Structures are given as structure tokens and as C-alpha cells.
């Protein structure tokens, strides 16, 4: 602030003290100037926030979300595309027939489980048990399948009610040549796994 302005502000007060000398007036003005020009004391700084409060809120992409997708049904088979259906018939223990439209590449264990047919599949299709035993009813279809390998033959030896056309359901994969396949589920299975013999 300029000196004339300061004097204008100070004069009303000085009129209350008429006996002051010129020297005291100058001192008073200097003190007034120094007082008004002095910087304000610094405001106390805010205490630092705790790390917990300073943690940034996660962005939408970082937030965890719940999935609303449909749960995958057991068996993990997809419905066949129109015009690409293959048919397989399961004959259950009571003799009832279940004709199913399936996709190429699905195996009999997955198909049976996806359709709630009674096939245990204790080893999950890793050719280490005999609970997916099926009997192919037509020799013609049996001959169209690749030969069972040693692992499958070993497990078939443990199967209850073994027959010439027995196979493990998890090892039979549907393909166009097997369209119309019919398989029978044995009246019972033995839940013996290869790990039982180690
Ligand atoms: S499910 Fe175990 S061998 Fe097929």
C-alpha cells in the first residue's frame, strides 16, 4: 500500500492524539506500515492422511464383478448345429431306449452325463476305471470304431459283464460313420480304478 494511503488511514487515529510530535507521527506510520506489510503466519499444515484413506478407489475395470453367465452343465456337450445332428441310442438297465441328437466330437460319457443317464465315469474320462462301460449292440458299428488301445483293454478286463463288443464310453467319440449307434448300459459296473492296483 502506498504511503499517502497509509497516512490517510492513520490520520483519523492521530487526531485522537493531538499532542504527538512530527517524529512520533512518522514512527507511528512506520510501525503501522510494518504491521500491515507483515506476512500472515502460515496456516498449520493438514495432518497427513493415513495410507488407508489415501488408497485410490479402484477404477471400474479393477472392481471385482459377479458373473451372470449360465453355469456349464455337466457333460460339457454343445447341442448339435441344425443339419449336423448325429444320433446315438442308449439302452438303460431297464431296457428303455434314449435316442439323442449329438454333435460330432462328443464322447459317450459326456453325452450320457449331459442327459442324466446312469453312467458314473469315476475317473472323469481318463481311461483309468471301468465305470463308463457300454456294450455296442451292432457289430457293424463296433467295427467302425478305432481299436481299443492297451489302457482301454486293461480297464475293460475289470468291467462287469464284459462282452465282445464292450467299450469304454469315454473313449468312443462320435463321428459321422457312427451316426445311428446303439449302446447298452450294463446292469452294473465295478468301480475299480487303475490306482487301486498300484
Ligand atoms: S470314465 Fe473312467 S475309463 Fe471312462
UniProtKB/TrEMBL annotation:
Keywords for the protein's UniProt record, in alphabetical order: 2Fe-2S, Iron, Iron-sulfur, Metal-binding
Gene Ontology CC terms: mitochondrion
SUPFAM superfamilies reported in the protein's UniProt record: 2Fe-2S ferredoxin-like (SSF54292)
Cofactor(s), names only, from the UniProt record: [2Fe-2S] cluster
One GO MF term: electron transfer activity
Family, per entry: Belongs to the adrenodoxin/putidaredoxin family.
Name the UniProt record assigns to this protein: 2Fe-2S ferredoxin-type domain-containing protein
Taxonomic source organism: Parachaetomium inaequale
Amino acid at each position: 500500500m502506498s504511503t499517502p494511503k497509509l497516512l490517510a488511514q492513520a490520520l483519523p487515529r492521530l487526531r485522537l492524539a493531538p499532542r504527538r510530535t512530527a517524529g512520533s507521527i512518522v514512527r507511528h506510520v512506520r510501525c503501522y506500515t510494518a504491521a500491515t506489510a507483515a506476512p500472515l503466519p502460515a496456516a498449520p499444515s493438514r495432518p497427513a492422511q493415513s495410507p488407508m484413506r489415501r488408497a485410490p478407489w479402484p477404477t471400474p475395470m479393477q472392481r471385482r464383478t459377479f458373473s451372470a453367465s449360465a453355469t456349464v452343465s455337466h457333460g460339457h456337450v454343445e447341442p448339435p448345429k441344425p443339419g449336423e445332428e448325429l444320433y446315438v441310442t442308449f439302452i438303460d438297465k431297464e431296457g428303455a431306449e434314449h435316442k439323442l441328437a449329438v454333435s460330432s466330437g462328443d464322447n459317450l460319457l459326456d453325452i450320457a452325463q449331459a442327459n442324466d443317464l446312469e453312467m458314473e465315469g469315476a475317473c472323469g474320462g481318463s481311461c483309468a476305471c471301468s465305470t463308463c462301460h457300454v456294450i455296442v449292440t451292432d457289430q457293424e458299428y463296433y467295427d467302425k470304431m478305432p481299436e481299443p488301445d492297451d489302457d482301454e483293454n486293461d480297464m475293460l478286463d475289470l468291467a462287469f459283464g464284459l462282452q465282445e463288443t464292450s467299450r469304454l464310453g469315454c473313449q468312443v467319440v462320435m463321428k459321422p460313420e457312427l451316426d445311428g449307434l446303439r449302446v447298452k448300459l450294463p446292469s452294473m459296473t465295478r468301480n475299480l480304478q487303475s490306482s487301486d492296483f498300484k
